[in-house]
Amino acid sequence: MAWKCIIPSCYKTESHMVESTKKVVSKQTSLQRLSLSDVNDPSSPMLVDDLSNSLIGPKLQVFSLAELKDITNNFSWSNLLGEGGFGPVYKGFFHDKFRPGLEAQPVAVKLLDLDGLQGHREWLAEIIFLGQLRHPNLVKLIGYCCEEEHRLLVYDYMARGSLENQLFRTGYSASMPWSTRMKIAYGAAKGLAFLHEADNPVIYRDFKTSNILLDADYTPKLSDFGLAKDGPEGEDTHVSTTRIIGTQGYAAPEYIMTGHLTTKSDVYGYGVVLLELLTGKRSIDRNRPNREQSLVAWARPFLKDPQKLYRVMDPKLEGQFSAKGAQRATALAYKCLSRRPNCRPTMTDVTNILEPLLELDDWCFVPFVYIAPPPDRDENVSKDYSSINEKEIESEEEKDANEENTGRRGGRGRGWRHRIKSTMSFVTYSDMSLYKKFGDNLEASNNCVD
Ligand SMILES: Nc1ncnc2c1ncn2[C@@H]1O[C@H](COP(=O)(O)OP(=O)(O)O)[C@@H](O)[C@H]1O
Ligand SMILES: [Mg+2]
């Protein structure tokens, strides 16, 4: 395998190699997780050959391109499982004599799109993080391939694909039941909490439904660590980034404004996914009426008020959910989506709140009746014309929708709002996602009032 492709030629001096080997050895003896900066840092380049040996945890397999072509039917279209910003993912199969020590099993092979925006760095990040972190709610990385410019990753195959495909699939298939949604919300929270609580915390950075995979019994597994980052070190409160990378609709507002990443940025993304699970709606949908295009902006006013719960819950659940569970889960989503990072719970808090909800069985079985809005109105919010103060909802909705959709808040004289001039350079990319350029003044709130 051509390791040299990983190391910039200018660093290939003998002394550097000696230094790098020493580093690897010391890492191994202390059993400290190798960090991305250890391998990416130009001042201490590292031979990729050493990489598979120096990662802690079960040894990763190194595959040849020919082997992976062979098991995926030459990357056949019929084996395609999905595609994101890194490239296409194909189903493959290890037969029983494929390689000693490898059991016969289906696998997923992710192939770098050489014309795409991602590359070696994202490939390496997946190896560094998924190769060393093992947890029941993280997908298992089996191995990788690096030949010339080709970069591939091989994972356990997840029979039910991504949460995105399961939750938003159209057609006549049954909608995902409440208990499955809660199982997924809880498991995904455990995976994220594990990353945040690690000795060297990891910021996942791209939490969204297409990056949560489901195995045969709907156990969720976080995958796609291409954008993950090591958390702040020492006294630092955040990791500074110069490029805002993530996915619109999931990225935390303060991260978009300042480029400052913390574990609380992941909590915001988690809140968006929880909201998608509760509402059955995508975080951004340009096909929805204007004020509903951003799910967070539309739903936020309803989340803090149990009386308005019926406005957000997925009609496809047909009222079959725990009333108490839904109330607590929407209140939790509201907290996770707080504009103030410090007011968001930690992911461990989230798991503690969600765990008891798995047992609740106070199903409400309230039939949800959808009444189509009059054709001349630019909205399709379901109405039941009961005791709602329509005016109040409208004004709250409008306020939030305007704030989220324009990226501006305020101008209404609230003392706790401060203007922040964004100074970031925004070169952005990710999984088929949209990125916004924020050059304008943006505002952030300064306390926990949303
Ligand atoms: N291990 C897997 N098992 C089954 N499907 C997978 C697996 N890994 C990825 N996929 C499918 O491929 C899609 C893209 O994978 P992902 O790792 O997110 O790629 P990218 O880094 O390009 O975003 C997922 O949303 C999912 O549909
Ligand atoms: Mg992805």
TrEMBL record:
Keyword Hydrolase in annotation: no
GO cellular component: plasma membrane
Domain Protein kinase: 75-358
The protein's enzyme class: transferase
Localisation: Cell membrane
EC numbers on record: 2.7.11.1
The entry's keywords: ATP-binding, Cell membrane, Kinase, Membrane, Nucleotide-binding, Serine/threonine-protein kinase, Transferase
Comp. bias intervals (Acidic residues): 393-403
Predominant subcellular localization, coarse grouping: membrane
Example of a GO MF term: protein serine/threonine kinase activity
Pfam family, any one: Pkinase
Domain of life: Eukaryota
Stretches for region Disordered: 379-415
Matching InterPro entries: Kinase-like_dom_sf, Plant_Ser_Thr_Prot_Kinase, Prot_kinase_dom, Ser/Thr_kinase_AS
Family statement drawn from the similarity comment of this UniProt entry: Belongs to the protein kinase superfamily. Ser/Thr protein kinase family.
Its biological purpose: May be involved in plant defense signaling.
PANTHER family with a match to the protein in the record: OS01G0588500 PROTEIN-RELATED
Name of the protein: non-specific serine/threonine protein kinase
